[in-house]
Design goal:
single chain, alpha/beta, Rossmann fold, 5-stranded parallel β-sheet, 14 helices, GFAT, GlmS/AgaS_SIS
Length: 431
């Protein structure tokens, strides 16, 4: 994608509105096949048929100050600390706190008639989609598939007309996700996209868009966009369950209250920063790290492993804790840190049982749990991080933060480029 900035006596060409935000807030976007000629006073756009066309000029909301680290050493740390605020803002656009009700925009389809959902994304957004699969299947009792966009577009998926396809992207320009969207559209799917950047290519192709309100995310490794995606997906899951008659008004209100409490608890999690910073010095010595979890936290374990790989260049893998004995247990010794994520809940005892298997094999366990879990089983781990107690439904929002902090401080300890890790780009616009 290319953005054209319209100034006074000067015109600009940039990758997106953020890149131009210190120059102008008047931006138009080129479409596929367009070419543009700029002078200091004019913009002329030609379409793929070489005909002169007009492209709408948008007033960008990207503020120039968003590209400022403020008092932080890296954008990633700034964005980690912004999460309680931006998640609160995102929830505020979707939840009526008085009525305890999720407000969706007008949908061009009947939500109660949807009988299957396909979620498609790449990277961190894919893990947000996997969390949503648990939410939607448990609450709305609907079949949900989650696909990596780069695989989905080539496997010729069978998609009966009238299904709902949800696409998740921070930028709205991810090439594989955009191509998968166009395929799903050709198969008669209703297209709902969850995006952080307005006026993107994916927004133009979608039937409806739910915007996250994370603000511009500069660090390549996604943090606040991820938790805002979770917030939107949680709200949508509630609305879907309500539309399908699987929850009543009282349960909807209870879930909404749990969600609105999350930002304050996320701020509390940041109080563990110094303990995680000290832990990172040990993890930075490792060549391999394993993350284990079950249920809603399983995608968080995979996201934790991805974060560590992205910015510290340490090999890491996230596994369902119950799968450990089917292979990964062979890797465990005193040199491999094992990050166990286990909030109290119905899967807690099973996860702790897997943790004990690791400890019995001299694995170095980092136990990320809540106050109840720390009291009952924290003494067996090398390090225990005790997070606030919160409704099981919203734990992914909390448990995302310590795995982000750990990846950040391990990368700092190793001296890597945190905000721009090697070989990676913020928007992957090639296939």
């Amino acid at each position: 994608p290319l953005a054209v900035g319209h100034g006074e006596g000067e015109m600009y060409l940039g990758s997106d509105a953020i890149a131009l935000s210190h120059l102008t807030n008047r931006v138009s976007y080129l479409e596929d096949g367009d070419r543009v000629e700029l002078t200091h006073t004019s913009v002329t756009i030609f379409d793929e048929n070489d005909q002169i066309v007009e492209r709408e000029i948008h007033i960008s909301t990207a503020a120039s100050g968003t590209a400022d680290k403020g008092n932080y050493n890296h954008f990633m740390m700034k964005e980690i600390h912004e999460q309680p605020t931006v998640v609160g803002q995102t929830l505020g656009t979707m939840i009526d706190p008085i009525l305890g009700h999720v407000n969706l925009p007008d949908l061009p389809f009947d939500l109660s008639a949807i009988d299957r959902v396909t979620i498609i994304a790449c990277g961190t957004s894919f893990y947000a989609g996997q969390v949503a699969k648990y939410w939607m299947e448990q609450m709305a009792r609907i079949n949900v598939e989650v696909d990596v966009a780069s695989e989905f577009r080539y496997r010729e998926a069978v998609m009966p007309t009238g299904g709902l396809a949800i696409f998740i992207s921070q930028s709205g320009e991810t090439a594989d996700t955009l191509a998968a969207l166009k395929y799903a559209k050709s198969q008669g799917q209703h297209i709902l996209s969850i995006l952080n950047v307005p006026q993107s290519s994916m927004e133009r192709e979608s039937d409806v868009v739910l915007l996250t309100h994370a603000g511009p995310e500069i660090g390549v490794a996604s943090t606040k966009a991820f938790t805002c995606q979770l917030a939107v997906l949680a709200c949508f899951s509630i609305a879907l369950a309500k539309a399908r008659g699987k929850i009543d008004d009282a349960e909807e209100a209870r879930l909404c209250v749990a969600l609105t409490e999350a930002p304050a608890r996320m701020a509390d999690v940041l109080n563990h920063e110094e303990a995680i910073k000290a832990l990172a010095l040990e993890v930075a010595k490792a060549q391999d790290v394993i993350y284990l979890a079950r249920g809603l936290e399983y995608p968080i374990a995979m996201e934790g492993a991805l974060k560590l790989k992205e910015i510290s260049y340490i090999h890491a893998e996230g596994y369902a804790a119950g799968e450990m004995k089917h292979g990964p247990i062979a890797l465990i010794d005193e040199n491999v840190p094992i990050i166990v994520i286990a909030p109290s809940g119905r899967l807690y005892e099973k996860t702790v049982s897997n943790m004990q298997e690791v400890i019995a094999r001299k694995g170095k366990v980092v136990f990320i749990t809540d106050e109840k879990g720390a009291k009952n089983d924290g003494q067996d781990a090398l390090v225990t991080i005790a997070l606030p107690m919160l409704d099981e439904f919203v734990t992914p929002l909390l448990y995302a933060i310590p795995i982000q902090l750990l990846a950040y401080y391990v990368a700092v300890a190793k001296g890597t480029d945190v905000d721009q890790p090697r070989n990676l780009a913020k928007s992957v616009t090639v296939e």
